[in-house]
Amino acid sequence: MMQRPKIAIVDSNVLSMIGLKQILENVMPIMDIKTFSSVEELEQTNSDDYFHYFVAQSMLLQQRQFFIAHQHKTIVLTQNSDPSNQPTGFHCISTNVTEEQLVRSILMLEQYAHAHGKNLPAMPKAITTSTLSAREIEVLGLIVQGYINKEIADRLNIGITTVITHRKNIMEKLGMKSVSGLTIYAVMHGYVDINDI
Questions:
Q1: CA–CA distance, 130 with 144 (Å, rounded to integer)
Q2: Residue-wise pLDDT tens for the chain (197 aa)?
């Protein structure tokens, strides 16, 4: 059996690590995500086995040599959304944004770095099997593009109660409770382009 690829999150802020781990598990369910509060803790494992390191900017500054040596694998989590104030030479994701924007940034990074699953193993069958009807997929696409129930009803020429029923069924079938979760599902299944969100 093929081993799942691993991602490391290196951050001394436990709450940040837990939140990012949960988002990454949704965005990249094939990955085995491990958390480390220091580079020393990471190095006690076989650090070269990790596909990517998601690292807090403060940790990058403390352990710059380690991350420069692994620059192609390192994704810096920064509070600053201005690219001119982010570390040069590294992929950066601003964490000082809404959950939807953070998910979008991670999805964009995943989509551009590993377009069509390049260099990644196949998704588990349970994740790739669509359980949604054609109409539910249409509704899902409009939900993740930010349309409200009335706008979806108008666009699809159906009643608002029908939209609400579809929305409820989609969330139940997928076991998701948030629009962020639906966004991840829709993008990963190709139901909506990341640039349309």
A1: 17
A2: 456 778 899 999 998 889 888 888 877 776 789 999 999 999 998 888 888 899 999 999 999 999 999 998 899 998 887 878 888 888 888 888 887 788 878 877 766 655 444 444 444 444 445 588 889 999 999 998 889 999 999 999 999 999 999 999 998 888 777 787 788 778 777 788 777 77
Helix (H, G, I), strand (E, B) or coil at 40: helix
Global pTM value: 0.63
Residue with tokens 């359980």: 131
Residues in contact with 171: Cβ distance below 8 Å, sequence separation at least 6, in sequence order: 177, 182
Pure H helices in the chain:
14-27, 39-43, 57-62, 64-69, 99-113, 125-128, 134-144, 149-156, 160-174, 179-188
Judged by DSSP in three states, 53 sits in strand
CB 194 within 8 A of CB 108: yes
HEC per residue, 65-96: HHHHHCHHHEEEEECCCCHHHCCCCCEEEECC
Name the residue type at position 93.
I
